[in-house]
Write a structure and sequence with these properties.
The structure is a homooctamer. By secondary structure, chain A is an alpha/beta fold. Chain A has helices at about 5-10, 15-25, 40-45, 60-70, 80-90, 130-140, 160, 165-170, 185-190, 210-220, 235-250, and strands at about 30, 35, 50, 75-80, 95-100, 105, 115-125, 145-150, 175-180, 195-200, 225-230. In chain A, the strands form three sheets. Chain A has a five-stranded parallel β-sheet with strand order 8-7-9-10-11, sandwiched between helices. Chain A has a four-stranded mixed β-sheet with strand order 3-4-6-5, with helices on both faces. At the A-E interface, helix 9 and helix 10 of A face helix 9 and helix 10 of E.
Chain lengths: ~260, ~260, ~260, ~260, ~260, ~260, ~260, ~260
């Protein structure tokens, strides 16, 4: 049973507060030997647990997908390999895999018709930053907010960015993704009056040192209203952007 | 004339749209030779221009304070030295200086009675982080939000933090300030479901490398909903926290 | 002949002190051309020589296993590849390989029934740290101490850790293993009054720089009673934890 | 009243368990505005709270010394400046200051006659490392263990070290302090079978990068049984060495 | 005698080629014990020798100024302190010192009326970059090119820059000076079709690491036509910009 | 239709200004979903858009080649793999691939007979730097300038360089390419009076750290007239050298 | 014809000085298009040209081997792959390849009977350092000096080293090779009174950062008479050791 | 009594072997509490003990000078401050201080007339490197070798160096000192066939990072026969150069 259903039943009276509490109490700290699944996470934070697939053993990954599916009726995994997709698909034929973002998800019925709320702009400096941007954008959508994609607007061709400023300014929060010199965050920070979450990417060559150059640029930004997440961490940026967007639209729960 | 007054007059009809536009047009890019003051900044972003005092020549600093005072009726400066305070005080006896935060401000009449809105928690790991925390907290208050101070709750004595969790969870946004190992952000990130802005500080000794250790810890945090600003950048964290709090309370302007 | 047997025979009188000395004198600095095996190591330190398998040529590895087996009746190797396991197995069918910890060992008869003494807690922040943790835990057990495993208790879900505090506090020493932000060591350091050995791991992505981020966090810890070993060095942590545990239980020899 | 006295009174019956609990309950988290003093620390960890003097404002430092003196009857501060010594002396004429270690302490009556237990060796590579070594040694003595000082035995004159090996081998734990190339820890690690705590120091010049070179050497040591604390952190090394020594001598409390 | 005069006399016939050669032959490698002055430098490169004053002993500096004045009739020194100015002024009352750029120069008669050729734009991101910019601009002017100053046009207020684009586009070369995130070079690189020389500056705080952050941003720029000189090296940028401008205006000599 | 042809037709009257404007207006920001092709780039900068092939998906690469071929009649790509060459060749049999420089190009008819103007010297320290040098040299030639190759003249055999000095001194600009210690740029900088663009390369081993050592050497050069581009960025150096050479020969357009 | 033979003929009168000069003049800067072979190198430095095989294309490598064989009658290459060995062997069946040192050599008749002069000690800390040590030792032997190998004497088992001190002290120069903490150089530096050349190696794991840790240790050594070459640069150490040994034995030429 | 005199007396028979042994036995490990003076150092290594003055307390420095003077009749100290000079002079009026090299020495009678043997070239890139060069040159002279100074021959004016090549080539060993890009070592390495000891210096600005840039350049040198000592370590370079020169001139003792 999903948490929302459980709460609905409480609201409708078909489940007593005590019964609901009992069900919930069984959920936290699901001990799986190699991992502890957090069954009350969505209740506590408004965000269901998400699986970081990279490096997980096949059997472990499957067990986690199974258990989360039982608990929530949906599963959302990031950094999945194509092999992991094929492996999970044997058990869950309905699983969907996006090669660009490397997201591996099982939707609950009706998830696709959900109305997304508010607006978050997701901008990239180049085309090579798109995989990270899609991880951010799809995370945002999974958690119920609307994402507007504005790609390939790097500062070395500033007119491309300026032609889209109005769209960016309408968002409640901007996720800005760039590698190499990472200057896009500063320029956008100066153009909007909403929080900007900057994501350095590891793409590039030479003295970019796996994303360190972009990270340093973004951390040192002279523009106001910018904060930075880890290199290539599209998921983290999407998560925080959703928190901010929910505050703006006046709700804080997964709808 | 302050922007708000100008707009009020337009609303009341005592100033035509054209006249108002004419006044505003004169404001942007006030060229001062050594600097360009941004007269439309508050109108555009909801935040008045703030002065970064550190390293400014005495004469330049005074000119900037004078010009901003003429435009806005108030001035807010960060990283001011005691000498700069005494220098500005000769011309503006009403200027106030806080030695801890190093903020040097001239308030407009009534500023102190202003009602602060929403709630932002400002937490520090140790007592040495308080100067940065005060820069954040007073910035938050200057821009019209309420700041709750929770100091000296570092993770090596986790019970100190846990005893204050309820207060932190009520805030719309949490500013977390820590030096050395900087682990506080991760722990708080796991305890709240609101955005956390992490500020590494340069205080400490040994292998902290001027704040780099805390910066790396915070950027690598496994908790969700954390983003990082520059080392010692209390102002930047306070600014972004205000943006988020304004979104939460449903307004976006300096009231 | 194993050292303990030799000493037992001396004690029982079946071997004179002079004979024993003669046997032992032949042991040190066993020159193998490409390496010098330390035959008196266990006598001198209470710890038998352990093989670092990684990068060793097949023939060299086998010779070393053969020689140590002759001298001690058991062999313990770390960082072994699956290929090395298969290679050694051809000669020693009884060899055991653990794919998680990559430990490749030949036990002496009765080793498995040995009573383990004292108690060392081995904690990890995430599931990805388990290989390093198992290297530590199995090293601890090999050298005769008891290891209690407490995995996946990272600080971004502090309640998972707090629910196990009582177990951790009972240990004579705590090995704490974490990658990325590495904050677990500081939190545990504040919760126990026994020595904490921190092991940074290289797992993760982005700005973790192969474990450097966790290393810096741990070295800068503000908690007392923490010291750090090399990135991914589970063996080294297990070794030192055993030294400490032996001091606590009042013995210092391999039993 | 000191904790030990309180417990003694409970044992003797002159104080009921309930009364003792009431007194203790008042102690934790002594809120001093700018800091939280940990009144139950000694009870919980066996180590009284120690003051890190560096960077503390005069007034704050004095308040902390006063409060800890009230609670414990003794105060121990590290990294104190000569100015801080003179400042505290005005209020506490009995305070003692050691210019080498920069330790500023108020002893309780009888502290100097206390019998020190066990044995910890404190070794330095050069004479420039002595300030850090004295911070470690005096911390060890303050917490009730015996420290044996072996200074200026750096590896570039290995005979100096070898002539003292027997003394070092008798200790339950060895604190090894070195700057520049920091090789002493590895050599000692190979000569003893007890835990070695390595402290890199920032003294030197050239490519030592404020102690980073020694830190890297020590972390990469190929000897077993070595763990590393922060650059110049003599206090931290002395603290952990005391924990280990207490385990070896069979007690764990401040006697 | 200045080189140009010498050559003019050769051209006019008042000095034979052999005589001129004799005079010139005496000039190279003027050995001053502590330094080798390069008397043929202007002849060989079109640029007279310039003095890097920083760190030079008073007596040495004066000797160098005297000798260069004898050879060329003018002297140009960078990174001079106020003390050095006062010291040189005692011997050369006509020396001029600019506190912002720290340039200490003796002009030849008529130098100030010289017509400057071509056009080089010198842009800064902030006001704190002006000292480096002035070092570049005055170097450019000293070597005979025209410098247009465009200061405080950092990318966090992109409209300030865009309002000056036309001026920048008219230059033959652009010197771009910025600290902290250093993003200005990329934006300008995308707006002009002339070479851009980027100068990172060390001004700022936090994770700028003395200019390293800006250096990395600029080196990693995705815009075309950008190359980078050392941190704070205004002189070097001005020198190379002059070389380029001379190529554009069709001459290559100091006029 | 190529831009030059279009302009020629305007000049000849066979196309009205309005018609030309209409055609051009359709060109900028060609939105391809995953990328924005810059159709007016050549018009604006005198350099046609160049494709950075590395990491591009097959389908995307082909679309970009097709679109640029339509627009300009030629395509120039850098960092192409052999696989990408074979892939593009299926559609464009006339495509040419150079394995050394990894340049993948489609020429317009007559491109090969074009007269190259001015002169740029391209020097390398060793033979391993030749791939980067060829990327630079062929870029220079593609954009219409003449490149003179002077390879394997590293400073550890200074006579090899000195024997070619006269050729280098005749160029309008020198591209200097070196890995490891990267000292070649300084030596050449002291031998010529034209701008030197230095390219660090990542070739080598040991403490070269992927080109960082050469980058630091070049940035710190004491010679005048040197600026540095990113590690291995032969294209960027060739681009800027072309800009400078065009200024010298008095033209600024692709002829 | 080899240089020595040529000179012998001059001495014997079978070749006039002029003829010899003519032959030699043809040799320098043998231009091979992609490389410049230095035919007078042995004459000038006493060391024949050596080939750095790594990364060279097959055809280029073969041409170089052929040309050097023609000139000198022998070829010596370092960092050769097994593939390169097989490739060269097709043309030169007498070529010899050593898999450990990766040296690929063609000897001249009689080379193996050559008497080696003087003595150089080559020491390693561990067995993993042997490939670098063999590169050094075989280079030493190729250039005509005697190499004594002392392997696996790392400082964590100092007795292994001390048992060989007498042999090391007899050498004219010591090459010391170590990875990880690299402390061996300091200990040996304190035991001998001859020059020590230290070679950091990249072998190891964790925070060794590809050899940087050992490099920093060695550069910061407090022992006298130590200098450091690049990471893994066994050839460079062998070369310099030979220079020193030749000075000691009173000759400086390849005999 | 000096060691040489003692040995001479033994040779002449005025002192028995037993008496000499008795005198010598008293000398090693002179324990001074804070330091261990090495009285047999000269006997063992051919080099008397040298004092590193920097950071030594006044009283300690004086005691060390007194004791070494008693033992050897002369004292040689490096990195002395002017204050230390004045302090030592009160007790030893004959002490000499050189402000450039910061060497503080007491000579034995006749030291100045000593004949210096062999030849070592000491080269600097710039004038700012002279203090380090003088530390090297005077160390060389103190230990009895001849030093030839060749200053200000940096590679950006290669003709200055080439004009002195013949002098450099005559030396048995070359000490090469350079800051910033440090390229001088590579160029000299290619010009001579004797060992080159490279010393990076910390002088400069910008991205030289306290000498790290020059250190990296020198370590990565492609020239043969170069090894590197620590940043600013003129003494260490002079020491090793003397070792090499002594080997070349056939002796190894302080004459």
């Amino acid at each position: 049973m999903e948490i929302k259903d459980l709460l609905d039943q409480v609201k409708k009276g078909s489940l007593s507060v005590e019964e609901a509490e009992g069900i919930l109490r069984k959920r936290p700290f699901e001990e799986m030997g190699y991992a502890k699944l957090d069954g009350q996470r969505e209740l506590r934070t408004g965000f269901a647990e998400v699986v970081f697939c990279q490096g997980k053993a096949d059997e472990h990954l499957l067990s986690i997908y199974k258990r989360l599916y039982e608990m929530d009726g949906r599963v959302f995994g990031t950094r999945a390999s194509k092999h992991q997709y094929e492996w999970i698909r044997e058990c869950f034929p309905q699983v969907k895999y996006d090669e660009v973002s490397r997201i591996l998800r099982i939707d609950a019925p009706g998830d696709e018709e959900r109305k997304l709320e508010g607006c978050i702009a997701v901008c990239t400096a180049g085309t090579a930053d798109i995989p990270v941007a899609e991880e951010a954008a799809q995370t945002i959508e999974y958690f119920g907010s609307k994402a507007v994609r504005i790609y390939d607007v790097g500062v070395s061709g500033i007119h491309r960015l300026l032609s889209r400023v109005d769209v960016i300014q309408e968002a409640n929060c901007v996720v800005t993704i760039a590698g190499m010199e990472g200057a896009l965050a500063s320029v956008i920070g100066g153009l909007v009056n909403k929080p900007v979450i900057a994501v350095p990417t590891s793409v590039g060559y030479g003295a970019n040192f796996g994303g360190l150059s972009a990270l340093m640029t973004m951390i040192n930004s002279c523009a106001n209203g910018i904060a930075v997440v880890n290199i290539d961490n599209g998921y983290g940026a999407g998560y925080m952007a959703t928190q901010i967007n929910r505050l703006a639209v006046g709700g804080n729960t997964h709808e």
